[in-house]
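Quick start: what a row looks like.
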Amino acid sequence: MYRTAWINEENDTYEDEYGNLHESVETNIIRFETETTGRMEYKYVTATQNEDESYPFTYTYSTPNGTITISEGGQTETFNFSYNASNNTIALYDGAYYRMFSRLQE
């Protein structure tokens, strides 16, 4: 996983309180920077909102599964992930949360 990046992008349409339809885009990027550390990037964009956050993480990986641990503000979250070599994707999950990531070519 070392020195790879993976992206998940989801587009959505939502209705505001006045009945107007708007679009939103949520982008999540996982960057494995060293053999044990990386960065999770989150971006959420609408016509009126632009959130951009980034969290360092530690991880373990033993083909094809791994664990990502994010510690921020005194709280720790752990996500499991698995790599699928046949379609070059990563599934990230923790029970209620599930996202499929594709390899990001930079």
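That is the whole record. The chain has a mean pLDDT of 93. DSSP finds no helices and eight strands in the chain.
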